[in-house]
Design goal:
alpha/beta, 6-stranded mixed beta sheet, 18 helices, 14 strands
């Protein structure tokens, strides 16, 4: 089993908070990680309920009665988004016996989608997000990097016996999400319309969000496509990367950039099943950009992240904050062995007061481009967060 970097954070959170929520997309390995952490804590009993199983769901016909019987155990509630009414019960039980590590809830929907956790468990819950596999988890190897980029980080996709088997798994994931997972959230959305939207988003991966243009292509209204995007973001499948609004006397881009968070799902939607097809596809540059952004954000786990673009063409792919809310680290992403940033990057560095910049590229050597700008091989992202 691949060791997940989040495991230590999860173990620590269970020693500090009565409820810990491990969130992330389906099939990303939340249940496997939860069981591994539970096995490591042998001093305490563990109860695991999968709320997709009727037999486990039946045990919670009277949740307060059942859970109170296991007040000394760690109770893992899997697929908790299927029973959002549990959260007020958890609050009452926690308030009657406030000890750390009472409940570990696993879910495939963000709190913004469920709403009730934030309202019912404020001050009692710690949220952790488990992402698809990262370079830091699979290893610092150029072959593994290429496989991770092509197949994405879902464990079953990454570890499949062949590229074709991996693609088949990802196509089945997309179908299951549309036909089963969305209805299970209580959302009445057309699977056909949502698939078309998802595919259009894949073709616009890494580009500025334009709800009106997408709505016109789908023959619907802008609020409808906004709702579709909210769903994909709140189920950890898409990312809105906001622009940084600096106090400059320049016209700044105000729309976010949109990425599909897993490169493997992006490639599956676009019918890209092998490296040869990927290298001949016009999305390759945007795919690499989104892949590296996800690796950086998983490694650094910043409070905020932005991109920067002016109407005059000054642009930086990713800005990360320091201790304050202002960006101190700029990252430019190039799919080229000679990573020369465009003039807009240097112009943007003059506009902003960042302390350091990296140009991430698919090469093997790290070397300075200027005093404060370094060329950084993508494989270096398999190291500790201090590499950035």
């Amino acid at each position: 089993m691949i060791e997940r970097q989040l495991s230590k954070q999860l173990e620590q959170a269970l020693t500090r908070y009565p409820v810990v929520a491990l969130l992330g997309p389906r099939q990303v390995g939340k249940t496997t990680l939860a069981r591994a952490v539970a096995r490591a804590n042998r001093e305490r009993a563990c109860i695991h309920l999968d709320l997709e199983r009727p037999s486990d769901l039946a045990k919670l016909a009277d949740p307060e009665l059942y859970l109170e019987q296991h007040r000394d155990a760690l109770v893992i509630l899997d697929e908790v988004q299927r029973v959002p009414g549990l959260f007020p019960v958890l609050r009452a039980l926690v308030d009657s016996q406030r000890v750390p590590g009472r409940f570990l809830v696993l879910g495939a929907a963000a709190p913004e989608l469920l709403r009730q956790p934030a309202e019912s468990l404020a001050g009692r819950i710690r949220y952790l997000e488990l992402t698809p596999l990262t370079l830091a988890e699979v290893g610092a190897d150029s072959d593994l990097l290429r496989r991770l980029w092509l197949r994405g980080g879902y464990p079953e996709s990454f570890l499949a016996e062949s590229d074709s088997a991996s693609l088949e798994w990802r196509e089945a994931f997309v179908a299951t999400y549309l036909e089963r997972d969305v209805p299970a959230l209580g959302l009445r959305l057309s699977p056909i319309a949502l698939r078309r939207f998802w595919l259009m988003l894949a073709h616009r991966h890494g580009q500025l969000w334009n709800a009106s243009a997408l709505a016109a292509s789908l023959g619907t209204r802008a609020p409808t496509v906004e709702r579709y995007l909210d769903l994909l973001c709140n189920t950890y499948l898409a990312r809105r990367l906001p622009p940084y609004h600096a106090n400059l006397e320049k016209r700044l881009v105000k729309s976010p950039k949109i990425y599909l968070r897993d490169s493997g799902l992006l490639h599956a939607l676009l019918g890209i099943g092998d490296e040869e097809t990927l290298h001949g596809h016009p999305v390759i540059g945007f795919s690499w950009e989104g892949f590296i952004i996800e690796q950086v954000l998983a490694l650094r786990q910043p409070r905020d992240a932005w991109f920067f673009r002016t109407a005059a063409g000054a642009e930086i792919d990713l800005l990360l904050p320091g201790r304050s809310s202002t960006p101190t680290h700029a990252i430019e992403i190039k799919y080229a062995l000679d990573p020369k940033p465009a003039r807009g990057f240097w112009s943007a560095l003059k506009d902003l007061t960042v302390e350091h910049a990296d140009v991430v590229y698919p090469g093997k050597e790290s070397y300075p481009l200027t005093e404060h700008v370094q060329a950084l091989p993508a494989i270096a992202l398999a190291a500790s967060p201090d590499i950035l």
